[in-house]
Amino acid sequence: MWPPNSLDLNPVDYAVWGAVQQQVYHNRKFTTVDQLKQAIVEELNKLSQRFIDRSIDEWCHCLTNCCTAAGWTH
Q1: Which of 3, 23, 27, 57 could cysteine-pair with 43, CB 3.0–4.6 Å?
Q2: Closest among 2, 9, 12 to 47, alpha carbons compared
């Protein structure tokens, strides 16, 4: 069994948060939590639909592979 935070079953989370984290901390320093929150919201809003779609497609591929490896059919 894979843990619930496994990259195998959550590539969308890892892809999105990885991209956001990289942009949020690129050449920035924060002095308040509110500044950090605002930067996260701004970077989430900048993500392209294409990036999100590719992340979801990757998740579908990983889920199919995990089900196949477990002997499940779809």
Answers
A1: 23
A2: 12
Q: Please provide the DSSP assignment of the chain as one string.
A: ---TT-TTT-HHHHHHHHHHHHHHTTT---SSHHHHHHHHHHHHHH--HHHHHHHHHHHHHHHHHHHHHTT---
Residue located via tokens 């590539």: 11
- Overall pTM surpassing 0.70 (yes/no): no
Domain range summary for the chain, segments of one domain joined by +: 13-69
**Contact between 9 and 62 (Cβ < 8 Å):** yes
Token pair of 55 as six digits: 């992340």
Cα-based angle 70, 73, 74 (whole degrees, multiple of 5): 125
